[in-house]
Amino acid sequence: MLRTHYIGELRQPLGGSVRITGWVERVKEVGRLRFIWIRDKTGMAQVTVSKENKALFEKTADLRLHDFILVTGKLAEKPIAKVGVEIIPTEVKVLSKAETPLPIDVTGHIKSILSTRLDWRPIDLRNPKNAAILKIQATLVEGMQEYLNSNGFLQVFTPCIIGAGSEGGAELFEIDYFGQKAYLRQDPQLHRQLLMVAGLDKIYDLGPNWRAEPSHTPRHLCEYRACAVELSYIEDERDVMKVEEELVVAGIKKVVEKCEDELRLLEKEVEVPKTPFPVLTFPEIYDILEDMGKKIPYGEDLDREAEKLLAKYVKEKYDHDFFFIDRFPYRVKPFYVMKIDGTEWARSIDLIYKGLELSSGGQREHRYERLVQQIKEKGL
Amino acid sequence: MLRTHYIGELRQPLGGSVRITGWVERVKEVGRLRFIWIRDKTGMAQVTVSKENKALFEKTADLRLHDFILVTGKLAEKPIAKVGVEIIPTEVKVLSKAETPLPIDVTGHIKSILSTRLDWRPIDLRNPKNAAILKIQATLVEGMQEYLNSNGFLQVFTPCIIGAGSEGGAELFEIDYFGQKAYLRQDPQLHRQLLMVAGLDKIYDLGPNWRAEPSHTPRHLCEYRACAVELSYIEDERDVMKVEEELVVAGIKKVVEKCEDELRLLEKEVEVPKTPFPVLTFPEIYDILEDMGKKIPYGEDLDREAEKLLAKYVKEKYDHDFFFIDRFPYRVKPFYVMKIDGTEWARSIDLIYKGLELSSGGQREHRYERLVQQIKEKGL
Questions:
Q1: CA of B226: which chain A residue's CA is closest?
Q2: Cα separations (Å) of A165 from A203, A230, A380, B159, B279?
Q3: Mean pLDDT, 10 residues at a time, over chain A (380 residues)?
Q4: Which of A2, B20, B64, B214 has the greatest number of CB atoms lying within 10 Å of its CB?
Q5: Residue B69 pLDDT > 90, yes or no?
Q6: A175 contacts in B (CB within 8 Å)?
Q7: Is CATH 1.10.10.10 correct for A7-96?
């Protein structure tokens, strides 16, 4: 590698020469000194060039914002740099020149509108706050995968191109599959279930899903990744809730452990949630909502406002950001969910975080006769 | 959970009652005893029902192959079962009845043709040999991800729907994207590179890719997963080779550690490969091939047969199943690869395993002026 160290690894005492790489974040001249701030993904260092080093001082005269450079030098013995790390260079090499001026201000001091930022997404991601989000995302996934892998869940990779929609609605992206119509999956549900039939018992698929919904809201995404988990031989939906809870905790725990700097940068405080998560069940949910001034007819589904109200209720009563909704009305759910005998409720759950649905799940009906009966009842 | 243990976890002394779940693999009566073999993904147990337990003997009389059952009982104190684990049941409950006869023989004694097996894939996967392949695949990925995560590579999730092809050729699946033409990616190459521009420095994307190639050969797949790695600030292509080598070793090491049973079942011996992997370079490769009786014109690309011959050469000379091919002819490579100054060779590599290409990689040209020049030279 061209570098010997990431900037974040530079600490005194580090004898001998070091080489770092990154982009120029700022250049400033004070008296006989030129200060070059250089950043890589781990941090920022100051490179101090003295006029006495005539060749290098001339060579670095036309350094511009976000030129990519390679700096060879020694750590200053008595650093005076505010950024903490100071390097006295013996060589500065430009690996790639930047356009001047840059299309957006990556420091974020001068705000750009979202569409401009997206046009220049790779430059926008050099802002450490934006890169931090990707780091946190990856760490969350890492924690979840570690939990799943070490608890007997097999990672599988199921097909993305399917012959028919797996959910109601027409929100499917259509593909020309060698002259035949095919679709991008909305969810790997069917393949997950087939792997249960195969006896694989506990699996997960961490893959993309698509919804052709022409909507611009925080609840709509054309392409998104989901951690789709399936497990067999459950007693009832509470076994699923336990896995979801442990999965969420494992992910957040990893973020709290590994992303301290990123969370500080984003000014976000994240705590590992207490377990067990609170559970609200139907039909009591109708009463809770009515007490809060929201009347939803008995047997009807919740709307967005109701989810938010319930989140408020849980926050006040249990001081918790997560909660489960359990035993949804069977009539608003698909035919394959398990109905609780002699009632109108289903073993169907949602996990809500700060008022937003994180997942839907529950126990599936596995008895063939019941499935056939439920398909008929739903008029399918 | 319905079960207290996986069958693989059953070991004497386990006092008290245990509950296991799985499918019936065999039923056999000998004298006053009925032996029910039950299998889950971890192993097989024998459930021994005595005629003296009249109720249970009657209840288990119509058990059929691959009924899913729940067995409650105790481990036999002096097991006589060949399969090792023997259970004296107090209760047997059928969770789901199987069709009789089964559409394929899952033991594999009676072979089914591939298309029939694929029609009944979930049943086919109950054959432990077939399930073992999925376990090995997941373990390989786990080992690779552990290596990447613990070596500073960030897992990213880049878009699958793109506006134009990323490689030559017309092998693209077309999508109707809200009335516009879009495509499934062949490779997340462009997005990976943009993340390098973002300074993220070391990333990987473990996602699906598609090729609309209407071919049936072991080298063609319409949908496949790739571990797409990108890293910045490399000295040259040898830094990439080092990462590939470590990645392959980490994956295989994990398989050797965790999949002993599966490898034994498949009668495969896998060893962690020695490092460094042998490297063959152009133009010497032409001489090696010529010595083996295969003449490829100077400056031309290798064909499938040449790859196989080189694999044979490496196996004989270095006793190694893996090797790199380095410094491909620049003229057969795309414009964005780095040409070695003053030569006709590129910093372009392939990793070959047992004669089959596992990956293509190398150093990309990052200098703007060179890129423009190379685009012109290639007539693009």
A1: A157
A2: 22, 19, 14, 21, 48
A3: 94 84 95 95 95 95 95 87 86 94 87 92 94 97 97 96 73 91 92 95 96 80 94 96 98 97 96 97 97 96 95 97 98 94 97 94 94 91
A4: B20
A5: yes
A6: 173-175, 184
A7: no
ipTM, 2 dp: 0.93
Q: What is the pLDDT of residues B259-293, one digit of tens each?
A: 999 999 999 999 999 999 999 999 999 999 999 99
Annotate B16-47 with b (16+ C-beta within 10 A) or e (fewer): eebbbbbbbbebeeeeeebbbbbbbbbbbbbb
pLDDT tens track for B13-29: 777 899 999 999 999 99
Q: Which residues of A touch B234 (CB under 8 A)?
A: 1-2
Q: What is the pLDDT of residue A340?
A: 96
Strand pairing report for B43-50 and B86-96: parallel
Minimum distance, in Å, between the CA of residue A140 and any CA atom of chain B? 10
Cis check: omega of the bond before A334, within 30 degrees of 0: no
Write the single-letter amino acid at B198: A
Break chain A into its structural domains and give their ranges. Answer: 7-96, 277-380
Percent of chain B residues past pLDDT 90, beyond the cut: 86
Distance from CA of A28 to the nearest CA of B (A): 22
B 224-283: CB under 8 A from A? 225, 232-235, 239
Cα(A177)–Cα(B212) distance, rounded to whole angstroms?
8
